Amino acid sequence: MAPESIKRMEKTKVAIVGLGTVGTGVARLLLDHGERTTRHAGRSIWLEKAVVRDLNKPRDVELPEGVLTDRLEEVTDNDEIECVVQLVGGVEAARSIMIQLLESGKDVVTANKALLAEYGAELFDRARELGRSIAFDAAVAGGIPIVTNIGQCLSANRIESIHGILNGTCNFIISQMEEQGISYHEAVEEAQRRGYAEADPTMDVDGSDAAQKLAILSHLAFGARVHWKDISRQGIESLSPTDLRFAGELGYRLKSLAVARLEGDELELHVGTQLVRRDSPLAEVGGAYNAIRLVGDAVGRVWFHGMGAGRMPTASAVVADLIDSVVGRTAITFRTLQLWSERPARVLPKPSATAATRYYLRFTVQDHPGVLADITGALSKQDISIASFIQHEQHEGPSDRIPLIIMTHQTTVGAADRALAEIHQLEMVHEPAMRLRILD
Ligand code: NAP
Ligand code: HSE
């Protein structure tokens, strides 16, 4: 479309609150590629204001005179601004900003999953009362349009399961440790440098970020009402190169997965590192990429793959939401989906002890007669059957600390809890066992 005709078109004024990694990408797309948004929105989307905390901080985007401000009121008091992109991280300040925006009559787009996972019910109720909408596709899996796909494109299905690599930082760290042989801490620093990690990377590496995203997806896909803190989480902080090596030897890769699986009207939910077969698509997902395998009763298995973090991939999802909001599509889906409403839950969380899985167990033991018999005895008492086993010969005589790997057949989380509690009492077993699920 020629620039002249764009100028003559209707103009919708928008604002961004938060001009960090993602906000800068959104501003760039709006300022440098206005013809794209105009083509899709049928009107020009005009960046009127960008709100930050610190006006003196250098920005990676050149803004027209008068756009940058540190006063939120320049947005809330401006009735010409219809829609606002809210890209402030964290929870409490973001919540207050979101409420001020809704109450001043703005539709809001956000990428802040921590905010929605914590205060989704309150914010969605408030938006409904005020006749406003909230769009949040960028909150889960960055550039992958998974929220729109589940909420709209797959709505004819009963979703049966979701297996997702939902945290780009974790996937990046594990891939770097595996491919570059660098340490866990070096990999975390690199993820922060590249803008993948949250301001506090603890939320990424301890599984909280993925649990927040899983809670949002479970809400959308299964009508579950689960708080992210009630989802069992295992972080990647204690992963060691030893586990990466043994997983490789056994034909697997390690991946931090978020899983939601329907069994009857119960939903199994967990986040943690799993062994994934090397020849499977999930095992091939490297770097800060995210991937989601979803099974629906009508569509069957569907895959999504793309960048789950980073400036431009996340901005891609935010700007698509902005266009949907500006043209009124978001308002329709927001009304019909009734997210976080008082509707009763369609499924209940499955008690974690009853969930079935296979396990990789790594014990650190004294190389001594009877150790193996004691461990296998404790497993057998819980009816846990061993599928394979690795102990490498020590060439320098018996050692007081060697790794011993056991792959189990299918068991339950509760049975493994009981067996490990007994094994950890054994004198010749040092350190708690590393225990990882196996995805078959
Ligand atoms: P970021 O780089 O830390 O940027 C946050 C921005 O918010 C900064 O510009 C900051 O201003 C501004 N800000 C903070 N408090 C404010 C306040 N009270 N009033 C006005 N502005 C305020 O964060 P980000 O990485 O862009 O992430 C933003 C959100 O997107 C987060 O919720 C994050 O979880 C989510 N997200 C991020 C990614 C990613 O790849 N980074 C991907 C998906 C979702 P100053 O610059 O002046 O300090
Ligand atoms: N810190 C998040 C991640 C950003 O690494 O996946 C995207 O939500």
Jot down its keywords.
16 helices, Alpha-Beta Plaits, binds NADP nicotinamide-adenine-dinucleotide phosphate, Rossmann fold, Dihydrodipicolinate Reductase, domain 2, binds L-homoserine, 440 residues, alpha/beta, 38% helix, single chain
In terms of topology, how is this protein built?
Blueprint: H1 3-8, E1 11-17, H2 21-32, H3 34-41, E2 44-51, E3 68-69, H4 73-76, E4 81-86, H5 92-103, E5 107-110, H6 113-130, E6 134-135, H7 146-153, E7 159-165, H8 168-180, H9 184-193, H10 202-205, H11 208-222, E8 232-233, H12 241-249, E9 252-263, E10 266-277, E11 289-296, E12 300-307, H13 311-327, H14 329-337, E13 348-349, E14 356-365, H15 371-381, E15 386-390, E16 402-408, E17 411-412, H16 413-423, E18 429-439
Parallel strand pairs: 1-2, 1-4, 2-3, 4-5, 5-6, 8-10, 10-13, 10-18
Antiparallel strand pairs: 7-9, 7-11, 9-10, 11-12, 14-16, 14-17, 14-18, 15-16
Helix pairs in contact: 2-13, 5-6, 6-11, 8-9, 15-16
